[in-house]
Amino acid sequence: MVLKSKGLTLLEIVIVVFILLIILTFFFSVFDYANFFKKSRDDKRIADLWALEMALTSYLMFNKNNPLALGPTNTGIGESEQSIFISVPVDVENLSALILGGYRLKQASSSNLINIDGNGWLPVDLTTLVNPPLVAYPVDPINSYNKKLFYAYVFKRNSSTFEINANLEFSDYKKNGGIDQTSYDSGDNDNVLEVGNDKRLMINLLY
User: Fold this and answer.
1) Is residue 207 assigned to a domain?
2) Each residue's pLDDT tens digit, 125-147
3) Is there a contact between 104 and 81 (Cβ–Cβ < 8 Å)?
4) What is the per-residue DSSP string for the chain?
5) In this structure, is residue 17 part of a structural domain?
6) For the whole model, what pTM was predicted?
7) How many CB atoms lie within 10 A of CB 38?
8) Does residue 59 belong to any structural domain of this protein?
């Protein structure tokens, strides 16, 4: 008895192709959604840093002769407890014991994190202004030190200068991307977004 090999019918081929198209559509949709959310978070990061830069620039116009204007005693660059202030809450990821390149990492608690009274993650008291430019300090959409997605702030007291950094996720916004946001910000680190009136203050060890 000779068995005849049975080939695929046209209907079966159409069904297989249809299933493959569904799988590919799902794959590319997930990929696009991932990039969409990365871009959305980065758009917020970019807007947040611009808002912070403008707020501190306005603040300095009225407080440049105040020695405590940009941060607590001894925490500026070159001072005895020079520090980097980060937006990650201390009660979520406690980094108080970490010293990075000679800098301590300073954190606020979750309850104070966005406060603009000097007790928030960014230690500048905007409430001293008649019309504060912000009602709350923004934080990174993911806000995790372990994931390297957070905001960071340093200042130099004697020159009244500051820098604020953020790490970006969307590949097109990063170095050599189609809409590169990190290589053309006049800072000294092409891999992160930098704002401030001196974009060479931050150590390049955070991200």
Assistant:
1) no
2) 999 999 999 999 999 999 999 99
3) yes
4) -PPPPPPPPHHHHHHHHHHHHHHHHHHHHHHHHHHHHHHHHHHHHHHHHHHHHHHHHHHHHHHTT-TTTTSSTT-STTSTT-EEEESS-TTTS--TT-EETTEEEE---TTTTT-SBS-SSS--BGGGSSS-S-SS----SS-BTTTTB-EEEEEEGGGTEEEEEE----GGGSTTSTT--STTSSSS-TTSEEEES-TT-S-TT--
5) no
6) 0.85
7) 16
8) yes
The per-residue pLDDT for range 188-202, each reduced to its tens digit, is 999 999 999 999 999
How many Å apart are CA 198 and CA 72, to the nearest integer? 19
- pLDDT at residue 8, as a whole number: 65
Q: What pLDDT digit, counting tens, does each position of 52-86 carry?
A: 999 999 999 988 778 678 999 999 999 999 999 99
Among 158, 156, 161, 152, smallest CA distance to 194 is for 152
What are the CA-CA distances from residue 114 to residues 10, 41, 93 (Å)?
Answer: 63, 18, 16
Please give the residue range of the domain that contains residue 101: 38-196
Please indicate, yes or no, if residue 21 is contained in any of the structural domains.
no
How many domains, the chain?
1
